[in-house]
Prior knowledge:
InterPro entries: Pigment-catalase-like. The chain is mostly helical. 54% of the residues lie in helices and 1% in strands. It has one domain (42-308). It has 12 helices and 2 strands.
Amino acid sequence: xxxxxxxxxxxxxxxxxxxxxxxxxxxxxxxxxxxxxxxxxxxxxxxxxxxxxxxxxxxxxxxxxxxxxxxxxxxxxxxxxxxxxxxxxxxxxxxxxxxxxxxxxxxxxxxxxxxxxxxxxxxxxxxxxxxxxxxxxxxxxxxxxxxxxxxxxxxxxxxxxxxxxxxxxxxxxxxxxxxxxxxxxxxxxxxxxxxxxxxxxxxxxxxxxxxxxxxxxxxxxxxxxxxxxxxxxxxxxxxxxxxxxxxxxxxxxxxxxxxxxxxxxxxxxxxxxxxxxxxxxxxxxxxxxxxxxxxxxxxxxxxxxxxxxxx
Length: 311
Ligand SMILES: *[C@@H]1O[C@H](CO)[C@@H](O)[C@H](O)[C@H]1NC(C)=O
């Protein structure tokens, strides 16, 4: 009899002690904040990349489908203004297929971040052909004639895409070691995995065509990527963190090869960038206090705003 009571107590204890724990870990793995309270720093670090995810979502949605978040998921915009100048690109069937997949992946990323932190409305994005043309003109140090049009064809669109997920990727690598909470670490690892996958696909598609001349400029695909990477290194003021598809051998993996389908440091590890470096690049101003480029009114969230207010 005493033994039965002991067993019953043990079973009751089992449910009392273990169930709440498994309930708790379930709530962590499904990205809901639940009972755990994140640090302000974690929240800021996770809200910051929303700026880039909005840009990627809109660029890929418009580029592949001809419309953006206002049509596919207006709630995610939180009432932010519609992007300027984004439009459907002239893409071949294969490229459109890939970009449409990226577009829906970005919608998922926005949902994932916003189910974990409150976030902010979509910032004003300037995705006009002119906005991209300015990036390409600065990359070459002189105006391209005719002005570069990201929406004109598949190769141009891929070159324009080369400009984007890589910056997000370096931001996630930079944020990872600063995060405290397991929910945040796991979310950033998941975002980083897919962003770097997107970058790898874009780079591989461009690498296949590296020696090809982009018309009417007569400049190779490889040269375009080297110029854009150099521009980002220059704007970021953070040293060498960006490299094109063909590099001097000593920059390649183990100093052994000049083909550079993936960017990586001397250990072939992904480069990380701070929010300041990222703002300098996406504002195209080289200055985190001076908005412009794709973000005429600046980026949103605590981190970006703290620099805008000190402008
Ligand atoms: C978008 O960017 C282009 C190129 O910088 C600029 O000419 C245009 O005025 C911008 N549009 C807005 C509304 O900021």
